């Protein structure tokens, strides 16, 4: 199993709040209901399916945003979720949506918002670093060009 951090699409997470909506995302899930990682068990464990061409079994947690792929039929979603994302409150609670208390639901939502904000900030910081790297490269190019023109004189 591999885990990735990919480009953030913030809006899709808000839509994955309920188990039923997450389950709906597993229409083309490669594992059947008899597998340990069946669509219903994946949705129960907080995952939604977000396949790519290279990663047809890629899923993501709606609370911690951890991405996991490389699933095997015997993989247990709650166990995999917690082992790859120990900080995830949803994985720590290990409760299907129907068994959550109102207090737990509020706490999960608070954690989810916190994680989302961290992700957005990390992505913006990354974008900023890319921009400053490009700017530095541009300035270095200008300095080199200036040095070359000085030598010619
Ligand atoms: Zn999680």
TrEMBL record:
Sorted alphabetically, the keyword list is: Cell cycle, Cell division, Centromere, Chromosome partition, Cytoplasm, Cytoskeleton, Metal-binding, Mitosis, Nucleus, Phosphoprotein, Ubl conjugation, Zinc
GO cellular component terms, alphabetically, are: chromosome, centromeric region; nucleus; spindle
GO molecular function terms attached to this record: metal ion binding
**Keyword hit for Cell division:** yes
Entry-linked InterPro entries: Baculoviral_IAP, BIR_rpt
- GO annotation, biological process: cell division; chromosome segregation
Question: Main subcellular localization, coarse class?
Answer: nucleus
PROSITE patterns given for it?
A: BIR_REPEAT_2
Q: Pfam family example for this protein?
A: BIR
* Cell compartments where the protein resides: Chromosome, Centromere; Cytoplasm, Cytoskeleton, Spindle; Nucleus
Origin: domain of life:
Eukaryota
**What's this protein's family per the entry?**
Belongs to the IAP family.
Q: What is this protein called?
A: Baculoviral IAP repeat-containing protein 5
Naturally occurring in which organism (per UniProt): Nephila pilipes (Giant wood spider)
């Amino acid at each position: 199993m591999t885990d990735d951090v990919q480009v953030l699409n913030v809006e899709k997470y808000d839509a994955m709040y309920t188990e039923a909506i997450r389950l709906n995302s597993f229409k083309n899930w490669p594992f059947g209901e008899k597998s340990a990682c069946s669509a219903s068990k994946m949705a129960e464990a907080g995952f939604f399916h977000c396949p790519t061409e290279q990663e047809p079994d890629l899923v993501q947690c709606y609370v911690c945003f951890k991405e996991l792929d490389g699933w095997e039929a015997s993989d247990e979603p709650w166990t995999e979720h917690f082992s790859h994302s120990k900080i995830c409150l949803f994985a720590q609670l290990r409760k299907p949506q129907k068994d959550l208390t109102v207090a737990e639901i509020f706490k999960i939502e608070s954690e989810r918002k916190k994680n989302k904000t961290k992700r957005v900030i990390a992505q913006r910081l990354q974008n900023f670093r890319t921009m400053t790297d490009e700017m530095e490269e541009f300035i270095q190019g200008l300095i080199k060009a200036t040095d070359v023109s000085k030598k010619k004189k």
